[in-house]
Amino acid sequence: MDRLQDLVRQKTSLEARLRALDHALAAHGVTRTTPLVDPSGFPRSDLDINSIVDIRRELNYKQNDLGQLMAEIEKALQAVHQQPQPQEKEAERLRGFARISGVAKGGPAELAGVRDGDVVVRVGGARGFSGVAEEVAGKADGELVLVVDRVVDGAPERLTLAVRPHGGWGGGGLLGCRMTEIPQ
């Protein structure tokens, strides 16, 4: 990654030098492609031909350098994206703290896709059972992010569900599901 950052800094510097050289040509009243000879084929007397040729030469060299640098940046980017991504450290991995033991029909939890047996990993900002009630109450009539682990077709999946807790759905509680704490 440091190599890539170094290459990008070189690219930025090279592009700045190219702009400076273009400005130097503009100061002479020409561009990279302005003819330096008159219609008869003689050098224009109103131009400093030697300086312009030197600037154009450096521009060509720098433009070639930029092309090579861009190829190196492309290779470096590919190398960065081919590196295996660091796996979540076990200590940082969120672990389930509650199990859904009942989902009321027609309740906010059911409408969001919560199922019996889901293992609750996070409720809003709460990553433990003690903060759930406060999180749910604070999001009444709003949107609450619920992260659960579920086994689907024999494979574990982590799902992020959006629940809209509210009291007027016809049942008890704001979520319409029962959570049982998992001892840690």
Automatic annotation (TrEMBL):
GO cellular component assignments: cytoplasm; nucleus; proteasome complex
Gene3D superfamilies attached to this UniProt entry: 2.30.42.10, 6.10.140.1710
Biological processes per GO annotation: proteasome regulatory particle assembly
Keyword Glycoprotein: no
Residue ranges of every copy of the Nas2 N-terminal domain listed in the record: 4-82
rRNA-binding found in the keyword field: no
Keywords, comma-separated and alphabetical: Chaperone, Proteasome
PANTHER family for the chain: 26S PROTEASOME NON-ATPASE REGULATORY SUBUNIT 9 (PTHR12651:SF1)
Name by which UniProt lists this protein: 26S proteasome regulatory subunit
Organism: Coemansia interrupta
